[in-house]
Amino acid sequence: MPFLEATGHKLGAKKEGVGGPADYHALGAMEVICNNMAKMLQMALQSPDWLQGHYLVVWYEDLVGHSVKTLRRVYDFVGLLVSPEMEQFALNMTSGSVSSSKPFMVSARNATQAANAWRTALIFQQIKQVEEFCYQPMAVLGYEQVNSPEEVKDLRRPSFGSPVSERGSWET
């Protein structure tokens, strides 16, 4: 599993790391995504008047863990009513019994299991590297860092510091 060994960020010369050559495409993408997410969150937290009331932040964990409630909140935000058929569709798509290693597979599957797939698919060093690159947005969003490989594998431990119900929503 590549993408180890990238100290100092700004991906300079290739280095040989613990896991072999670093996957510089993955590292570069991770750095861009995390930097853009940090900028987006900064704008959300200090939103100008023209942006207020025009966006809603939805956590993926809320969507998969409370699909109907989250769907209703999104529909309400845009001024629409959710049909019973759409609620059933959301429930079916997030609570199926199918598990897949394909992250963009569109079919009924256990979405909670999919949301936690990183815990079994990545090694501890990779997770720590993601935390290093994405520290700022992860902290703002309330994700807790992991301290050991055992903590990662304990699927009873949430990745959020506070329960979904306590996080509230970002409607501005």
UniProtKB/TrEMBL annotation:
Q: What is this protein called?
A: Sulfotransferase
What family is reported?
Belongs to the sulfotransferase 1 family.
Q: What PANTHER family does this protein's entry cite?
A: CARBOHYDRATE SULFOTRANSFERASE, CARBOHYDRATE SULFOTRANSFERASE 2
* Region span, Disordered: 152-172
Entry-linked Pfam families: Sulfotransfer_1 (PF00685)
Residue stretches making up the Sulfotransferase domain: 31-139
The cross-references to InterPro entries, in alphabetical order and at most eight, read: Gal/GlcNAc/GalNAc_ST (IPR051135), P-loop_NTPase (IPR027417), Sulfotransferase_dom (IPR000863)
Look up and give the organism this protein is from: Saguinus oedipus (Cotton-top tamarin)
On the tree of life, the source organism's domain of life is Eukaryota
Cite the entry's keywords alphabetically.
Transferase
Name the Enzyme Commission number(s) assigned to this protein: 2.8.2.-
